Amino acid sequence: MTYSTAVYNEVSNFNWDTRIHNSELKTNGETIDSWLTFKAMNFLDVDSRFGEITYMKLFKDRLLYWQDKAFGIVSSNERTALTDTNNNQIVLGNGGILQRFDYLSTVYGMKPDQFATTQSNHNLYFWDGHEKEILAYGESLVPLTTIKGIRNHINKHNEVVKPCMFYDNKNKEVVSSVVEGGSIAYSEQTEAFTSIYTYTPLYHTDVFEDMLSATDHSLHLHNVQQPSVTLFGNTNKALPKLQYVVNTEATMPKVFDIQTFGGRFYGGDDNTTPGITNLQFKYNTPLKQESSCTGSVVTNREYDFRLDIPRNNNDAYGGRMRGKTMQCEFKSTSNSSDFSLQYIITKYRMSWS
User: Fold this and answer.
1) Pairing of strands 173-179, 183-187
2) pLDDT in tens, 304-315
3) Which CATH architecture has domain 241-350?
4) Residue range 301-330: mean pLDDT, rounded
5) Three-state DSSP class for 156?
6) Spans of all domains in the chain
């Protein structure tokens, strides 16, 4: 039997954690999406001395990257231009897609799996858990925690496992829940840390001009008259619920028969469908019909849950829920029972009365 040695520079199943790959250039009308094509030699390796690449983000047409102990910028498709006597720009040449990388700092970086960063129109903000520093990057890199004199406050608290940062555009402030004991707000207008909030959000999202932030047990609404309003959670024992309207073919009268839905239900004692027995379903139509049932009547068919829409609480219209539209509500009857839904399908028949 004959054997051959492996190629000298061949490495199998190796994780190149300091390598940035790039796809092919995309053009309009192409039959094969070039953004899905990554050739073997289209990559750029950054300096491995500063640890793995932990995050990447686009900011002001600049591709930024973080390592465990460094922060830098990748030059992507650079162009060099000069201005002639008529103040017109002349392009001398184009660079490659990934031509070079430059470090903005080899002191500050980002821990793996933290992704604590946010941005405004002017600056990008991020958290360095190693140095316990909140930093701002605009034209230069600024360590806000040190310069603004709050390092003692930061240092006396432990870092949270999953730090969170978000930018409140209405109030022009950055909210950072990076250490235990609450969140700290930095105002871009006054260029100072102005407030300490007594809650620690884990997630956030924009809703028009307002801001929602979530903890393990509460959902907070910002930008109202009070500093924040708890929409649901352990504070006021409000119960999570979902309301929606079935309005497909809204001009046609219908008879609503069955709903099927997929999701996860938590907190119940039923091993087959955990938590679904603690849900209550309510329905009403413009014909002043009302019906309701509990999750105990829901059947589970390979995690495709099926519910016969209960008949009207009175005998009008034969008891069936009828109308052009129908309002539905899924509501938990227990604070310990949460649910998440992937899809809801409502089956109906046209009513030819």
Assistant:
1) antiparallel
2) 899 999 988 656
3) Sandwich (2.60)
4) 83
5) coil
6) 19-200, 241-350
